[in-house]
Amino acid sequence: MLVTAIEAKPIRSLDRVRIELEPGIVSVIGPNGTGKTNLVEALYFALTGRSFRTSDRRDLIPFGESLARAEATVRDEDGIEHRMLASVSRNEGRRHLLDGEAASPATIARNRPPVAVFAPDRLTLVKGPPAERRAHLDGFVAARWPARGELRKRYGQALAQRNALLSRLAGGYGLPQSLGIWDAGLAEAAAPLVEARAEAVAELADHFAATATELGLEDGALEYAPRGSGSAEEIRAGLEERRDQDIRLGRSSWGPHLDELKLLTAGRSLRRFGSQGQQRAALLALLFAERAVLLEARRVTPLLLLDDVMSELDPARRDLLVARLDDGGQVLITAADEESVPETARRSVVRMPPPAQAESSAA
Question: What pTM value is reported for the model?
Fold first, then answer.
């Protein structure tokens, strides 16, 4: 799948901007403050209905306006084009449409490329809490095996049901024996989720280590640390062992909702001990590993959004990065300085601000 166009009308500083996109590497170049990151965010918003910069979509609405809207055109393997529109309004909330109609997130995801972002704000994926890494890993699982896309949701529903009963039991209402059915339900939902996460990390690990080395992160490793694994029967037995403790706490203290995805260098946690530069390298290595696995396994065309990545790398590693990107897929790279982008990544260039917006600003 390829994104052939993105429209922002408006998003933050962008208003009535339409950009045509080519396959392969597209470099978005312009001085700071001209809207490069906003363009990347608009594309991400159109495809996913979310922002990678804020949890409150209303932040995308320009000052003095009541609405933010972005639209992307996606061409599938058969040459059929689909239009994805995301919007957020101060009064009416948010919408995410496929070809003008409301659609489920799963349906929209099937009609767009897998998308990943490198941006300074995204370092929370490495140095933030485990929940962010779990969610990211589950997103990769859904992209790698679409049939497993509902595993996270199914487990979340079972966990909420068990926790609701535990909360009542902690308050003195109900009988502990009634937990049996919810233990079984949670275990049945947990086992395939743990299995999928473990398989995903096994596929990613070698790619992560190789890319980390190229980016100067020595002995980089990716490890999955589950909190409760095995068959559904084994997970259920683990829940029963901790039943008294869970009742005291009023919540489930064991299970894949507490799993960790560890990013390491020389056996040490990058979250705790990594420098800013090492954490940036690990984030890039993770995104490149995911891209490589998707290309190899499904021949899909992942979309990689790299915001201001070149400023973090020396010239030799910039060349290595671009060489890795030139093996398929679609990539947007933003840069303030054209000379920081290797020549092989400048075959398709978008100048910021776009001509129409530059003329409007001058007027």
Answer: 0.84
The residue among 216, 226, 232 whose CA lies nearest residue 184 is: 232
One-letter-per-residue 3-state SS of the chain: CEEEEEEECCECCECCEEEECCCEEEEEECCCCCCHHHHHHHHHHHHHCCCCCCCCHHHHCCCCCCEEEEEEEEECCCCCEEEEEEEEECCCEEEEEECCEECCHHHHHHCCCCEEEECHHHHHHHHCCHHHHHHHHHHHHHHHCHHHCCHHHHHHHHHHHHHHHHHHHHCCCCCHHHHHHHHHHHHHHHHHHHHHHHHHHHHHHHHHHHHHHHCCCCCEEEEEECCCCCCHHHHHHHHHHCHHHHHHHCCCCCCHHHCEEEEEECCEEHHHHCCHHHHHHHHHHHHHHHHHHHHHHHCCCCEEEEECCHHHCCHHHHHHHHHHHCCCCEEEEEECCHHHCCHHHCCCEEECCCHHHHHHHHC
CATH of 1-113+303-363, one of 3.40.50.300, 3.30.420.40, 3.30.565.10, 3.40.50.1360: 3.40.50.300
Rounded CA-CA distance 203/215 in Å is 20
Task: Chunk the chain into consecutive blocks of 10 residues (it has 363) and report each block's average pLDDT, rounded to whole numbers.
Answer: 92 91 91 91 93 88 91 90 93 89 86 86 88 92 88 95 93 86 94 96 95 90 89 91 93 93 94 90 91 80 86 84 82 90 89 67 42
Q: How far apart are CA 219 and CA 209, in angstroms?
A: 7
Instruction: Tell the residue number behind the tokens 């990347």, with chain if given.
Output: 40
Structure token pair of residue 72 = 């992307």
